[in-house]
Model the fold of this input.
Amino acid sequence: MIPFFITHVSPQAPSLVAETLQGGRLSEGELVRTFEKAVESLVRIQGAVAVNSGTSALHLGLVCGGIGPGDEVILPAQTFIASGMAILQTGAKAVFADIDVRTGNLDVASVRAKITPRTRAILPVHWAGYPCELDELHRVAEAHGLWLIEDAAHALGATYRGRPVGAISRFTTFSFQAIKHITTGDGGLLVCADPDDASMAARRRWFGIDRADSPMSQEGERQYDVGEVGFKYHLNDYAAALGLANLPDLPGILSRRRTIADQYRRAFVSVPGISLLDYQDDRDCAWWLFTFRVERRLDFIQSLRAKGIPASVVHQGIHHNAVFGQQQADLPGQQLFDATQVSIPVHEQLTDDHVEQIIAAVREGW
Ligand SMILES: Cc1ncc(COP(=O)(O)O)c(C=O)c1O
Done:
């Protein structure tokens, strides 16, 4: 079976990680800062704060933005449960807006309709790595005094109208979990547009203690007076070493994925029973997934699997989870997406033969 997801480990990684292990410093040190700087420079962003997961990055961003009990944050249901869970972890309510079935991303009109006096922020998710309608979402946010925290777990290296995802909203989060474009084993990044948010996030990722400004006493104890609730969310140096080894491969990873996605789009555009998602050329998708909508989905999945090709649903709408309480099910776009979406492999370890095999199998029908 062709693999559906892969873990990308660069050939340089074992020696770089081994060096860190042998150096004796495993926890957060210089390599974390070096990793943050390297991501900033490669992706053209600023204000990067590395943490131990994408979920921690979301929670930390929400907390640094002041979200707490009594607040509401609007998000799509088309995501992994982490996006909604991070909102609940602050004590706020996760309010689901509908998606545009043509992209799997937040529908701006639905977001507008979900705003109440308690709404504080919008949390768009760039489904599969395809950037949301960010200008329109920002217009809605500004009109209502809200801010955005983008969940860009799928979208490292994506761009929107000439700007990199991560350089557009007050907060953006990335994930470096094992099957993402770039992995640190587990890890994440909170990107803050405001330097004050970035310093607060850097403090609060480690209990609220400012590592750079907490001198040691003569007795050898770190001196601090913590004035805010903090977390143990820091990234470790050995994980940063893995990230630093993998990071230079990002441009190649993105370009291979783009090439495969272009081939799929050309090959499937007129296949009966397939509806490709929308793709505007004012933005670059990071192609973490290649998702589309299909008729008779189970037949499609079984027919491909029988030919050694994994096809799968990745993340059904999360709104049905009991933890979110009774939510109005007025999400017709989400409902249609849930019933019809499917993804096929689009990663950089696919050979040209694999891609041809996948295209032929889909074109044969199901
Ligand atoms: C959309 C989305 N948001 C957040 C996360 C959470 O990231 P992490 O696993 O690094 O905590 C994921 C993980 O797959 C995800 O797909």
Observations:
- The first strand starts at residue 48 and ends at 51.
